[in-house]
Design brief:
Phosphorylase Kinase, domain 1; 27 strands; six-stranded antiparallel sheet; alpha+beta; 4 domains; 21 helices; Transferase(Phosphotransferase), domain 1; about 725 residues
Length: about 725
């Protein structure tokens, strides 16, 4: 069954095989890719939003539709699309896309938001099925939610609509906050509006704090709603149905929740205090103290009388001031944490990125030498080849004439390559004197050609169109992503071109050629459940805004790190033969065998060509040649895909942010311990050198196995903490 999202449609259910609504005629394929499966709540005219479960090419997601065009509601809806992006690290449902949909024969536009579907159920449904919370589960959930809200508030975001139906319980027991339609960024403008209450008032009866209902929500307002939510879950009664103390407006609820302790009840009451300034600013600490005191009390009660007496003496001893060593060690730990956080903060804002990328290049150049890729053959066109065409064939305006290309394809046909790609732009039709060439370009399924997406930074603001004779299925964009130092370290596999782009390709030329080669070997590609590209059994993990040494980069499209084949130079990637050698039948029989069932890449290496790129080898392995022709970078990209799928050669991987933080803190702590424990400056220096050598060795060995882990940040933390400890902490004796 498919549903029509037109709120004015009178009969919204449709059979699965229809593409437009049988009642109103609106499209059932939303935004050209989504099909609506069912509503996730009753379709009610009283709601400004409708929520549906949708199918996105085999992946289940959630579609929210705003049925009103009131300006303020649209602003809130746009805000709901924007805020989750900055809260991604807190596990909130991520936004897939935001767009407008026009129903058939209606002038109104429907604002639509596609989001990740969180598995599990909301706490309102959980309460209906399972009954009231136990104290153990209440403490667990409260601790999770308090930590989540602390993360929200750290990002200066107020949720403003916490209630059981807006909290999802995952199958693994983790809680997730959803529905950011009422969320608000705490900006200076917002703070200035608070005294007059000139803020949009959003609330859920029974859960919203009094100050929020007056248009003056603050961070403590979220904790008030959290307390009311816990009351609902502990009693099974909606807060509006519970009596209130007429003197202070507090809920009278404890008698409905006899299963919980006085300490937990006191904490929940503190969260729901009518005045926001009287609510705890850090309820997580109060909750942790409550848990610790409960555990300690249980453990003490289980001890014998003699053991309890020994415990009492130990406490007196601990309080007598005889723990200087442990206190100083605690200072070392605190300093190591502070230095680690400082280094990670500097790194996060991008100050270390240029240096980490240089370190990345040096590690890449130090790897053991690999053999060239035997699956590729490069047909090069240098200055001599261009002169040869002018002299022997016909004068040309470009690097490869129609006559030469036709003869080249006819020669290659004899050798039976599996895939042929040309890394030369042909934004003009084939000369009418060579109809056979036009026929080949249209019909030869092995032939792939490039076009270019508009790129002002590359000096091509208009883009470059595709060859008119080559169908879209055999087109690929030739664009790479260069970093600020103009080095191509990233491989752009997929993007959505602008509507005005003359190049309509969505996949890279290198990806198109590699997939064609692998398809002939029976290896297919697909989009995995987590929306990552999978070729055969290999997942190609995309770069994000923060990936190892990259910080705040533009990760649009589908980018992976370019794992250059380890060679003395990137131009050694494969066997090469010149255009004139093939046209004059000067290739050796051995080379003919190399062409059979291989990928042939045709490109320009002439010094006059403008298609040149810096690579990770530019500053080390190529001191006299900083840039290489683009065909060699294309070959490296194709070789990376083939080697990963066919040879098991690993793609470059990196750790999650939290693991990198632990790694940096570990080296910071090691440096602090060395500085604290070693008194002699010479020995301390030797210890530091050994630690740095060990760090480099681990990072290098990991990089050989394609792992990019923090080297420079860990080294900075290791050195900086030693200076801090020597200056601030008395040394151990």
């Amino acid at each position: 069954m498919s549903y029509c999202i037109n709120p004015w449609c009178l009969h919204r259910k449709n059979p699965d095989d229809r593409e437009s609504c049988q009642n109103c005629g609106s499209s059932l394929i939303i935004n050209e890719r989504y099909r609506v499966i069912k509503p996730l709540r009753e379709l009610n005219k009283n709601h400004y939003t409708e929520i549906f479960e949708i199918d996105n090419l085999g992946t289940t997601k959630v579609l929210k539709v705003l049925t009103s065009n009131r300006r303020r509601l649209v602003e809130l809806f746009e805000q709901e699309a924007r805020i989750p992006r900055q809260l991604e690290h807190l596990g909130v449902p991520q936004v897939d896309t935001y767009f407008c949909f026009s129903p058939k024969d209606r002038s109104e536009k429907l604002h639509c938001l596609v989001m990740e579907k969180i598995p599990g159920q909301n706490l309102a449904h959980w309460l209906e099925e399972n009954g009231v919370l136990s104290e153990k589960l209440a403490i667990d959930w409260l601790l999770q939610l308090v930590k989540l809200l602390a993360g929200f508030h750290q990002e200066q975001v107020l949720h403003r609509d916490i209630k059981p139906s807006n909290i999802m319980l995952r199958p693994d027991g983790k809680l997730v906050l959803i529905d950011f339609g009422a969320a608000r960024q705490v900006t200076m403008t917002y703070v200035e509006k608070l005294p007059g209450g000139d803020v949009t008032r959003v609330y859920s009866m029974g859960y919203t704090a009094p100050e929020q209902m007056n248009g003056q929500a603050v961070y403590q307002s979220d904790f008030f709603a959290l307390g009311r939510t816990l009351v609902n879950l502990l009693t099974g009664v909606h807060p509006n149905e519970l009596p209130k103390n007429p003197q202070n407006e507090r809920l009278i609820w404890r008698g409905q929740a006899p299963q919980i302790s006085v300490g937990l009840a006191n904490l929940i009451d503190d969260l729901m205090t009518p005045l926001p300034q009287e609510r705890p600013l850090e309820p997580q600490r109060v909750l942790e103290q409550l848990i610790a005191s409960q555990e300690e009390e249980i453990q003490i009660n289980e001890l014998s009388a003699g053991q309890q007496k020994l415990l009492s003496r130990a406490r007196i001893f601990a309080a007598s001031g005889l723990g200087n060593t442990w206190r100083n060690f605690g200072k070392v730990i605190i300093l190591s944490l502070a230095i680690a956080f400082l280094v990670m903060g500097i790194r996060y804002v991008g100050l270390l990125q240029p240096f980490e990328l240089k370190t990345f290049d040096h590690l890449m150049a130090l790897r053991p030498i690999e053999k060239p890729d035997p699956r590729l053959l490069l047909v090069t066109i240098d200055e001599a080849d261009i002169q040869y065409q002018n002299r022997m064939l016909m004068p040309i305006r470009w690097s490869l004439s129609d006559q030469a290309l036709l003869q080249l394809l006819e020669k290659l046909e004899q050798y039976q390559p599996r895939t042929i790609g040309i890394d030369i732009y042909r934004d003009f039709p084939v000369n009418s004197d060579y109809p056979d060439l036009a026929t080949r370009l249209r019909s030869d399924s092995r032939f792939f050609a490039p076009c270019k997406i508009p790129s002002p930074e590359d000096g091509v603001p208009e883009g470059i169109p595709n060859p008119p004779e080559v169908p879209k299925s055999r087109l690929g964009f030739s664009d790479f992503v260069a970093d600020d130092d103009e080095v191509a370290r990233r491989h752009l596999l997929h993007l959505t071109p602008p509507v005005t782009s003359p190049c309509a390709a969505t996949d890279a030329l290198s990806l198109q050629m590699a997939l064609h080669y692998l398809d002939k070997a029976g290896i297919k590609s697909k989009v995995a459940a987590d929306e990552q590209l999978q070729i055969g059994k290999v997942l190609f993990k995309p770069l994000t805004e923060h990936s190892s040494g990259y910080q705040h980069i533009d990760a649009s499209g589908y980018q992976i790190l370019l794992n250059y084949r380890s060679l003395r130079s990137p131009v050694d990637i494969a066997q090469q033969v010149s255009l004139r050698d093939i046209l004059e039948d000067l290739v050796t029989p051995e080379l003919i065998n190399l062409v059979k069932d291989r990928i042939v890449i045709i490109g320009v290496t002439a010094a006059s060509a403008t298609d040149e790129w810096k690579t990770s080898y530019s500053a080390t392995a190529l001191p006299n040649r900083q840039e290489v022709p683009g065909m060699f970078v294309q070959a490296q990209a194709i070789s990376q895909i083939l080697s990963a799928v066919l040879d098991g050669r690993p793609l470059i991987w990196w750790w999650a942010g939290w693991l990198e933080g632990l790694w940096i803190w570990g080296w910071s702590l090691l440096g602090g311990i060395l500085a604290w424990c070693i008194h002699c400056p010479i020995r301390r220096g030797i210890g530091g050198v050994i630690a740095l050598s060990l760090l480099f060795g681990i990072c290098y060995l990991t990089f050989i196995h394609a792992g990019w882990i923090p080297l420079l940040p860990a080294a900075l933390a290791l050195i900086a903490v030693q200076v801090a400890v020597i200056s601030l902490v008395p040394q151990t004796r």
